[in-house]
Every structure is written in C-alpha cells, then in structure tokens.
Design goal:
Structural class: alpha+beta
Largest sheet: 5 strands, mixed
Low-confidence stretches: 78-84
Strand content: 25-35%
Shape: globular
Distance between the termini: 27 Å
Radius of gyration: 20 Å
Number of domains: 2
Order of helices and strands: HHHHHEEEEEEEEEE
Helix content: 25-40%
CATH architecture of the largest domain: Sandwich
CATH class of the largest domain: Mainly Beta
CATH topology of the largest domain: Immunoglobulin-like
Number of strands: 10
C-alpha cells in the first residue's frame, strides 16, 4: 500500500499559493490538502516564503558585479573524475510533525500509544516518516518523496542494541523496518550517491 499517494506537485502548490490555478484545479487541490498534512505543511511554507519575497525591498546588485561573479564560476574547470564516486551526506531537517506544530532538532514519540507522521526535508527530497507503537516496541516506516531510483533504509544507534536493521526500498521508494525497542535511533537512507541521515529519532512512550 502506498503511504502517501498522489501528493500535490510542488509547482502546483506554488500556483495555488499565487492564485494561478483554475477554479476546478484549485478546489481539487484544497480537497487533497484537507486530508494530507504533508502537503498542507508544504503549502504553508510556500505561502510564508511568497510573503517574505513580496515584502523584500532590497535592491539588485549592479550589472557589472553580477557579470563578474558569473564569470568567476564559469572560469573554473569542471573536474568530473574527481567528483565521481563521492558520497554526499545530508542531515534532514524536520518540516512537519503531526504531534507538534513546532519544529525540533530531536523527535520524541509524544503521548503513549500515539502514532505520528513526520515530514523531513533533505535537499530536493522529502522523507515521509511514520512512527507507530507495536507489540514489541515501535514500527518505523516511510517513503522517499521526489526523484528516487531505489536504495536502502537503516535504523541503528540505540544504546545497547545489536547491529542496525536494514531494508531495501520498494519500487515506490517505501520502506518498513522491523519493529524496534524503545530508544534513541538514527535513520539513514542511502539513495545512489546520497546518504540522508535523520538523527535523534527518539522512540519512547
């Protein structure tokens, strides 16, 4: 089962925030937002950014300064061979938490017995994460949203635990890890040459 089907594309969220969608398309998007906390959180961020841009009163740099800056980058040789094979590491940032409207560096499980949905941003990708109490601890599952061609998810780092649990992403870039006992974990997602880390994932009642 797809965890987050038919999310509203980012471009459509921008058009919705700017009032450029046709009435039917706008109504369909609003209906989806009423049922999808992840998309609603992204729309709120888009609207906030649009408001900041409208209020921006700064002036553009002089044309010759801009041309000089562009020339500096264009003059540097591209070192394809040196960049090949390098692993990029990104620490994901929390952008939505169904248990709290306040972003935080660490994530706690909240009220006893409560399931939670978390949305993390990692560059051009988002990670839709689900935490749910289980018979023997916690169930952790999720989906990578954005350009994804497969990879694996790994949950490890709890004090006193054995080796990390690792599973491969399916064709929809979803994952469901084995149930884990309560504790503090780090979730790692390996996607081609990108390693996304979500540290301080605190699963405690």
């Amino acid at each position: 089962m797809k965890l987050a089907p038919q999310h509203v594309p980012f471009e459509r969220l921008v058009d919705l925030a700017e009032g450029r969608l046709a009435p039917d398309a706008s109504r369909d998007a609003r209906t989806h937002l009423d049922a999808c906390a992840a998309c609603a959180g992204q729309l709120a961020q888009v609207e906030r950014l649009a408001g900041l841009m409208r209020a921006d009163s700064s002036e553009d740099a002089p044309r010759d300064v801009l041309a000089g800056a562009v020339a500096l980058f264009g003059a540097r040789p591209v070192r394809v061979n040196a960049a090949a094979g390098l692993l990029r590491r990104v620490i994901a940032s929390l952008s939505f938490d169904s248990g709290s409207q306040m972003p935080a560096f660490g994530v706690r499980s909240g009220q006893p017995g409560a399931s939670r949905q978390l949305l993390f941003s990692a560059g051009d990708l988002d990670v839709d994460l689900r935490l749910a109490p289980a018979a023997e601890g916690w169930a952790v599952s999720g989906q990578v949203l954005g350009e994804c061609v497969g990879g694996w998810a790994e949950l490890g780092g709890v004090e006193g635990a054995g080796e990390a649990a690792r599973v491969r992403l399916n064709e929809l870039c979803e994952f469901a890890l084995p149930n884990v006992p309560a504790g503090s974990y780090t979730l790692r997602l390996r996607l081609d040459d990108l390693l996304v880390e979500i540290p301080n994932l605190d699963l405690r009642s």
